[in-house]
């Protein structure tokens, strides 16, 4: 499969999921010179939990809503993220679909187990690694980490069915195209992220401790 194209697709908006949007750096609330490269724990507590609960604003709007599995990865607007993410990398909120197949018949195949994401000694979420195979079962250079919330953070007897459904289906996908000569270890570099580790850790603890109390409301 080809490397990221310049094609734009239809991204979700609050009012119309078929609205064509262009991602503008002016709309990304990041400090000048900073790159969006949050820790795994921050993706869960600062973004995914807030998105699910819809009770606090996100730190930035760098993660875009999209019907991710409607498209093959080379149709995604990866280039639109180049101003604040690493080369050929993008982050999306989406809902999981059965089999993780795209409309063209492509498939995101699992290439690893669920890995727990910790905040202190609490498992707050999980991530899993996927590789994209085209409709002809050809392995591509597209890979993806899927991040999901630990459902045990919400009470098993919660009466909030919508919240339970969101926890089951709403995820963050970090998708990236790897060049043939790129080493897997390049996932971790020394790039300045969008906020300090100390700030993230404080937010992690505060947000996790509030999750069940928010559900009571």
Automatic annotation (TrEMBL):
Positions with biased composition (Acidic residues): 182-206
Record GO terms (molecular function): DNA binding
Chain spans, region Disordered: 182-217
GO biological process, one term: regulation of DNA-templated transcription
Keywords: DNA-binding, Nucleus, Transcription, Transcription regulation
Keyword Glycoprotein listed: no
Segments forming domain NAC: 30-178
PANTHER family reported for this sequence: NAC TRANSCRIPTION FACTOR 56, OS08G0148400 PROTEIN
Name of the protein this chain belongs to: NAC domain-containing protein
UniProt source species: Acer negundo
């Amino acid at each position: 499969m080809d490397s990221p194209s310049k094609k734009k697709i239809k991204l979700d908006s609050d009012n119309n999921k078929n609205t064509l949007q262009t991602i503008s750096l002016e709309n990304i609330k990041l400090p000048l010179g900073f790159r969006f490269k949050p820790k795994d724990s921050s993706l869960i507590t600062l973004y995914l939990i807030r998105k699910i609960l819809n009770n606090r604003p996100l730190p930035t709007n760098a993660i875009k809503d999209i019907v991710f599995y409607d498209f093959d990865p080379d149709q995604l607007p990866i280039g639109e993220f180049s101003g604040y993410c690493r080369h050929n990398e993008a982050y999306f909120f989406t809902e999981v679909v059965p089999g993780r197949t795209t409309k063209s018949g492509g498939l995101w195949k699992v290439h690893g187990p669920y890995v727990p994401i910790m905040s202190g000694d609490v498992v707050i979420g999980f991530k899993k690694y996927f590789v994209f195979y085209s409709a002809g079962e050809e392995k591509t250079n597209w890979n993806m980490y899927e991040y999901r919330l630990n459902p045990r953070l919400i009470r098993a007897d919660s009466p909030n069915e919508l919240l339970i459904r969101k926890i089951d289906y709403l995820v963050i996908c970090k998708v990236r195209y790897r060049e043939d000569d790129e080493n897997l270890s390049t996932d971790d570099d020394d790039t300045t992220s969008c906020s300090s580790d100390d700030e993230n850790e404080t937010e992690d603890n505060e947000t996790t401790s509030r999750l069940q109390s928010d559900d009571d409301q």
